[in-house]
Write a structure and sequence with these properties.
129 residues
């Protein structure tokens, strides 16, 4: 059973990675732009969280950079932008930039990230990270 679980995780990783790269390419295709951006953001949010936990900050930045400028209202986009704000706030994998972190926090809140909303409403501490 252990090997089946390992195989299924590996298979899921391959599928998710493939969807991420296909969706990134699809961002330039008219008509599916919003959908493909949502897929990219969803994968980037999850994979970057794992990379951050493993202290692989440059990997997290690489995954999150395409999502930085997304303007679509999507929770996955907000989560990815929140993760990127975390990296900028602490200078992990990028040069520390508090202004950029706050800008991304606002975008994340606009895109439905609950942690970013709490921070902006003042119910969180001054440092949400």
């Amino acid at each position: 059973m252990k090997y089946v679980t390992y195989f299924l995780r590996l298979l899921w990783h391959w599928v998710a990675t493939g969807v991420y790269y296909v969706a990134r390419a699809g961002v330039l295709v008219p008509g599916i732009s919003t959908f493909s951006k949502s897929l990219v953001a969803s994968y980037a949010a999850g994979a970057s969280s794992q990379a951050i936990n493993e202290k692989k900050f440059s990997d997290a930045v690489r995954l999150l950079k395409p999502v930085e400028a997304y303007e679509i209202k999507d929770v996955s986009v907000g989560s990815a932008q929140y993760n990127l704000a975390y990296l900028y706030s602490h200078g992990y994998g990028v040069e520390k930039d508090e202004h950029k972190a706050k800008e991304l926090m606002k975008k994340a809140a606009e895109n439905g990230n609950s942690e970013a909303l709490k921070f902006l409403k003042g119910s969180a501490s001054n440092d949400p990270f």
